[in-house]
Amino acid sequence: MSAQDAENIIGYQFNDSLLLYEAFQAAGSWSSGHRMFPEGNKRLAVVGDTVLQLALAETWFESLETRGIPPESTLDTKYSAADGLHTTAERFNYILQEVGGNQNLTTIGRQNGLDHFINLAAGARQPSAGTVATTVEAVIGAVYLDGGMIHVKAVMETLGLVPASRTSSTSVVNST
Question: Model confidence over 71-127: pLDDT tens digits?
């Protein structure tokens, strides 16, 4: 599988292909060439985790419910006060955990086939759930550093990390 295959999956073409390469390096993997990544993709994962939170916060902030308007979108209705989440902070934290939590990131990574691109540490046969989740965060971080937030949100939508449309009744947050 090539870098172009990974770019096709996420729907983004990198200007700096080394960022994509780094995003798929598991901790302990062997790196060739002039760049070494002793901790694998963890640097990018830190950036990606932060950017993912910000992207989700922006989407949530723009939602109708946070402005006191009755919920119409899936994002608004799925996380409404009827679920026992009474404050806006509780609802946002729930969204953050459900969408940006490691379990969902692992599911998203595997459903989209990103786990097949991970360069594993010597002796590893397949990536662990944590490695897949970290890689999804690293990909998001790489996209952010390469193209900015607008591209991050598009990649998140492509991968299924946010509703396709905040006003579409068929949109759902992917969290199996």
Answer: 554 455 555 554 555 567 777 788 888 888 999 999 999 999 999 999 988 788 899
Instruction: For residue 7, give both structure tokens.
Output: 């770019």
**What percent of the chain is helix, strand and coil (3-state, nearest 5)?**
60, 0, 40
If phi over 0 gives left and psi between -120 and 50 gives alpha, with beta otherwise, what is residue 125? alpha
Q: What single letter denotes the amino acid at residue 151?
A: H
Evaluate whether 168 touches 77 at the Cβ level (below 8 Å): no
> Helices (H) and strands (E) in the chain — how many of each?
8, 0
Strand partners, 29: 121
